Amino acid sequence: MAKSVDEFNKKRLRSSNITVVISIALVLFLLGLMGLILINAQKYSDYIKEQLVVNAYFDENYDAKDSVKIAKLEEETFKKVQTLAPVKKATYISRSMAATEAKKSMGIDSDALFEENIFPSSIEIALKPEYVDPAKIDEAIKVIKSVPGIIDVKNDSTLMVDVYNNLSRILKWIFGFSLLFLVLAVVLINNSIRLKIFSKRFIIKTMQLVGAKRRFILKPFIIEAIILGAIGSLIGLIALGGIWYYFTSQIGSAFVQDNNQYVWLVILVLGVGIFISVLSTIFATWRFLKSNVDDLYYS
């Protein structure tokens, strides 16, 4: 009889542990998925911002005999522009290149309609994402204009502001959903741990009544919580890695684009799983340690 009771208790304990691990794995999988979406949304946002360029123009009026001298000055100016703080990437466009681009855009193959060097040479500048901010774009343009040799800087400020505001709005929503999933992770993991500890409330109280100290009673529960939290987190991360590998292979993207961010995401997911499990275990166990025997029947 005693043996069958022990076997029943072991099965119930095993089932309880599996339920907790699965709950942690599922919740952290969703949390990690939101983290991946947030990381890549930020990268995509930065990529789009880098496509919004400004054009810095050189003086188009100069004597043809000074062309060699002017070319040298433009080269020096171009090098200075590349070193500016707001500049992510700079591309030099000569007069002939500008004319070629104009022909392509107008669908003209002949030089008969306009002179070859009718357009001034310029520099196409992709700003760093943080300088696409409407509050900083004017500062970036002033810095570029201050470079000797640059006479004018043009940009589509309305387009930049619209794109920046829309991207910021999307990122805020994604960040908000990520925080929501973090709160849900805390609540769901906490509930799973509390149910597990609730099934052991009589054992906890019995140990206390026979003289065991609270620290002694808590220790095995905390160790178990660390193990279950780590196992659940690892299962969630493995599932997340599998889904992410399948997704990136389908779209032809790199599995890992930024080692640092992905490593921090793994650490965060693992840390959240263990931390919440341990914290929930301490609170749930402490509750029964402070309660009366009669309260155990009504908890």
TrEMBL record:
Gene3D superfamilies: 3.30.70.3040. The keyword Transit peptide does not apply. GO terms for biological process: cell division. Residues 176-292 form the ABC3 transporter permease C-terminal domain. Its main location: membrane. Residues 54-153 form the FtsX extracellular domain. Pfam families: FtsX, FtsX_ECD. InterPro entries: ABC3_permease_C (IPR003838), FtsX (IPR004513), FtsX_ECD (IPR040690). It is found in: Cell inner membrane; Cell membrane. It is a multi-pass membrane protein. Keywords: Cell cycle, Cell division, Cell inner membrane, Cell membrane, Membrane, Transmembrane, Transmembrane helix. One of its GO terms (cellular component) is plasma membrane. The keyword Nucleus does not apply. The chain crosses the membrane at residues 20-39, 170-193, 221-247, 262-289. Coiled coil: none annotated. Required for cell division and gliding motility. Belongs to the ABC-4 integral membrane protein family. FtsX subfamily. This is Cell division protein FtsX.
